[in-house]
Design brief:
single chain, alpha+beta, 3 helices, globular, disordered C terminus
Length: 235
C-alpha cells in the first residue's frame, strides 16, 4: 500500500512540474518568424530590417541602431575615434548592403556616471573603404526625452535611391556632458529595462512566465505537504 501511494505521489508531483517545463520548452523554441529569418540570412543574406544595441563596459551607456541591410551590428569596443577620448563610451558599427540611413538612440542609465547629462558629443571615424566621412557633432536632449537621437545622415550615410546600397564600418565614440538650460534634462528610470524580465509570456499560449512558475511552485509545495502527512499517517 505504501509503495502504491508513494508512486502516486511521485507521479502527481511530476505532473505539477509539467506546466513550467512546457513553458521553458516553448520559450527556448524559436518562433516561425525567427527560424525563417535565421535560415534566410544564412542562405541568401537578403536585405531586411535590423535593430541592434550594445552597452559600454560599466553598463552606464547604451547605443542602439536601426536600419535596413543584409547585416548590421553595434559592438562595444575599447578603440576610440581619437586617442584623446580614451575611456569614453565607444562602439563599432558595421552595416553590409544597407539601403537606409541608420537611426541611432543613445541612452543613459539612471544612477550611472552619465546620469543627468543633456549634451552628447559624437565622434565618428570610418575605417578604410567604408562609406561616410569622419566627423564630430553635438546632439542635445530635452527634459522629456529619454535618449539622444540622431541619424547617420550627419556623416553622409543617408537614404539610398533605387537599388543602391552602401557598406559601412566605423568607430563611434560618444562624450556625454551636462550643460545648464532653462529646463534641465532629467533621467527617465524607464528609459532602459534592468533586472529580470517578469513580463515574458509563452510564445504559444500567451501565459506569463511568472504565473506559470508561481502556479507550478504552489502545486509542488502542496503535493509535498500531502506526501509528508500521508507518510506520517502510514508510519
Amino acid at each position: 500500500m505504501r509503495k502504491k501511494l508513494a508512486a502516486l505521489l511521485c507521479a502527481g508531483m511530476l505532473a505539477c512540474a509539467l506546466p513550467a517545463l512546457a513553458w521553458a520548452e516553448e520559450a527556448a523554441e524559436p518562433t516561425a518568424d525567427q527560424a525563417t529569418a535565421q535560415e534566410t540570412g544564412a542562405a541568401t543574406r537578403s536585405i531586411g530590417p535590423w535593430q541592434e544595441s550594445a552597452s559600454n563596459e560599466d553598463g552606464s551607456f547604451v547605443l542602439s541602431g536601426e536600419t535596413r541591410a543584409a547585416s548590421f551590428a553595434v559592438i562595444a569596443t575599447s578603440e576610440t575615434a581619437d586617442d584623446a577620448l580614451d575611456g569614453m563610451p565607444s562602439f563599432r558599427v558595421v552595416a553590409e548592403n544597407a539601403t537606409k540611413k541608420i537611426d541611432f538612440g543613445a541612452a543613459l542609465i539612471a544612477g550611472g556616471k552619465y546620469a543627468g547629462c543633456n549634451k552628447l558629443e559624437v565622434h565618428v571615424k570610418p575605417s578604410a573603404g567604408s562609406a561616410g566621412v569622419a566627423k564630430t557633432f553635438e546632439v542635445t536632449r530635452a527634459a522629456n526625452q529619454s535618449s539622444f537621437n540622431f541619424t547617420s545622415e550627419m556623416f553622409n550615410l543617408g537614404d539610398q535611391t533605387g537599388d543602391a546600397s552602401y557598406n559601412a564600418d566605423f568607430i563611434m565614440t560618444l562624450v556625454p556632458s551636462k550643460v545648464d538650460t532653462d529646463e534641465p534634462a532629467v533621467d527617465d528610470p524607464a528609459a532602459l529595462p534592468s533586472g529580470t524580465d517578469t513580463g515574458a509570456t509563452s510564445p504559444k499560449t500567451g501565459m506569463g512566465a511568472g504565473a506559470v512558475a508561481g502556479a507550478s511552485f504552489g502545486m509542488l509545495a502542496a503535493a509535498g505537504v500531502v506526501a509528508f502527512a500521508l507518510r506520517r499517517k502510514l508510519a
